[in-house]
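A.,

Following up on our hallway conversation. Structure tokens first:
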């Protein structure tokens, strides 16, 4: 089977386009929560759901450990609280942003805004 220069260059162009499409898709996937979607990241915080709605609700140790992990990227935590999924779950942003303090997390961002709210 012989290859001519036209078929080789067409194959090269197609390969280039496939690689380019993959790179663009991966770049778009890197959002507030990196390569993890906000919805997927939000599901890790299900143990915190009660504490996001009621300031008097007990914040569980599991919730606190998940928040510590989420605080590696505070923009992700904020995106979760502000997401359509978060709103549908009834998250109260003013209450949710108090969770790191209620968990006594020492290295929490202070003075950072999440939407129009500050912790």
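Then the amino acids I'd put at each of the 119 positions:
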């Amino acid at each position: 089977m012989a290859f001519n220069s036209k078929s080789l260059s067409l194959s090269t162009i197609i390969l280039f386009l496939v690689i380019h499409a993959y790179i663009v898709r991966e770049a778009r996937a890197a959002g507030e929560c990196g390569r993890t979607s906000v919805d997927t990241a939000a599901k890790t915080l299900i143990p915190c759901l009660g504490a996001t709605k009621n300031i008097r609700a007990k914040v569980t140790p599991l919730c606190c450990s998940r928040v510590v992990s989420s605080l590696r990227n505070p923009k992700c935590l904020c995106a979760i609280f502000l997401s359509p999924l978060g709103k549908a779950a009834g998250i109260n942003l003013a209450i949710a942003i108090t969770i790191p303090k209620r968990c006594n997390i020492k290295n929490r961002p202070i003075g950072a805004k999440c939407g129009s709210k500050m912790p």
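The radius of gyration is 21 Å. Curious whether your intuition agrees with the design.

B.
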